[in-house]
Amino acid sequence: MPLKIGLTYDLESDYPADPENAPDANSEFDSVRTIKALKKGIKDAGYILIDFGNFGNLLKIRESLKSRADIVFNISEGIKGRNREAQIPILLEYLNIPYIGSDALAMSLTLDKVLTKQILIVNKIPTPFFFVYEKAAFNNLKLNFPMIVKPRWEGSSMGINSKSVVYSKSELEKRANFIMKQYRQPALVEEFIIGSEYTVPVIGNSPPETLEPLKVKLNGMEMDNNVFDNSFIRSEGIDYVPLTGREKLKNKLRALALKTYNCVECLDFGRIDFRVNNNGEIFVLELNPLPALNTDDALAVSAKHIGWKFSELLDKIIKAALMRYKMVHKTGIN
Ligand SMILES: Nc1ncnc2c1ncn2[C@@H]1O[C@H](COP(=O)(O)OP(=O)(O)O)[C@@H](O)[C@H]1O
Ligand SMILES: [Mg+2]
C-alpha cells in the first residue's frame, strides 16, 4: 500500500483581502495552479494524496489527523507574525505526526531576517551590512548608500519594490517609517548589493546536497540596480538560468548554500538567495525553508536541468523526510 501524504497549504482564496493590511499582504499564499501541480506531482510520484488545506481545517480534524496520513507535506505560510510558518509544524509536533520540511524553530528563525543574519555572521557567512531602523540611533550612523529597506519578517518580496532602494538618509527614514506602519513590524535596512542575483536549491539531510545553481534574470538582464519586486513573482519577467561553465563561482555558491542551510538546521529542502557584487564578492541575502514549489519556480527549473521531472523532485524531498524519520531505510537524492 503506497504511503498517504497529507498536503497542508494556504490558498489565496482562503483569505479575502483585508483593507487594514498592506495590498501585498496575501502574496505568500499559494495559487490554485501551484496546489494543483503539487497534488499531481505527489500522486505521479506514487503516493496517495490526502488534501488537508490550511491550519483552520487541520484544527477541525485534529483528532483523526494521525490516522488519515502517514506524513504531512507542509507548504503552509501561516497567517501572521514571525512565527506564522511554524504554526502547522508546531501542531504536527504536538500531535506527533511526521512532516516534510524544516521544523517550527527553523521556520520562525529564517522568517526573521535579522536573527538569521546574526547567525550567518557568527558562522562567518557573508551577508550585507545591516541595522534595524530606530530613529534615536539613526542620525549617528555612517552609511554607504544605496541601501535597501525591507520588512523584518516577510517573504515573497512583500514590501519590496524600486522604492525600497534608498540613496539618502531622508529617503531611508521615509521608507522605514512607511514599512513599519504598513507591515506593523521593524524595518531592516541593508547595504544594497549592485550586481547579479543567484539562487541555489538544497535538498536532503546529513548531508544535504545542492541542485544546479541558477542566475536570476529580469527580462533577460542582470538584476543590478533592480530588486525582485513583488509584482514580478506572478509575471513572466523573471528567468532562472542555469550557470553554464562558471565552475569556480558555482562551487562557491554551492558551498555557501550548504553552510547556510546547515547553520540554521534546515530539513529536507530549502533555497538560498545570493547577490554577487561587481568585484565578485558573494553575499547571502536570505534562506527560504519554504521555497516556491511550482513547475516554473527555481527548484523545478534547477531539477529539470539535472534531468529530474517535477514528480521526481517532490519524491526526493519526500524521501529525505522519510529517511530522517526512518520510515524508509535507504535512499539518496541521486
Ligand atoms: N541587500 C540587498 N542587495 C541587493 N538586492 C537586495 C538586497 N536585499 C534584497 N534585495 C532584492 O530584493 C529581493 C527580495 O529580498 P529578500 O531579502 O530575498 O526578501 P524576500 O524574503 O521577500 O524574498 C531580492 O531577491 C533582491 O532582488
Ligand atoms: Mg528572497
UniProtKB/TrEMBL annotation:
Signal peptide: none annotated. Its main location: cytoplasm. Gene3D superfamilies: ATP-grasp fold, A domain, ATP-grasp fold, B domain. GO terms for cellular component: cytoplasm. SUPFAM superfamilies: Glutathione synthetase ATP-binding domain-like, PreATP-grasp domain. Residues 117-319 form the ATP-grasp domain. Transmembrane segments: none annotated. It comes from the Bacteria. One of its GO terms (molecular function) is D-alanine-D-alanine ligase activity. It is found in: Cytoplasm. GO terms for biological process: cell wall organization; peptidoglycan biosynthetic process; regulation of cell shape. Keywords: ATP-binding, Cell shape, Cell wall biogenesis/degradation, Cytoplasm, Ligase, Nucleotide-binding, Peptidoglycan synthesis. Belongs to the D-alanine--D-alanine ligase family. This is ATP-grasp domain-containing protein. The lineage of its organism: Bacteria, Candidatus Gottesmaniibacteriota.
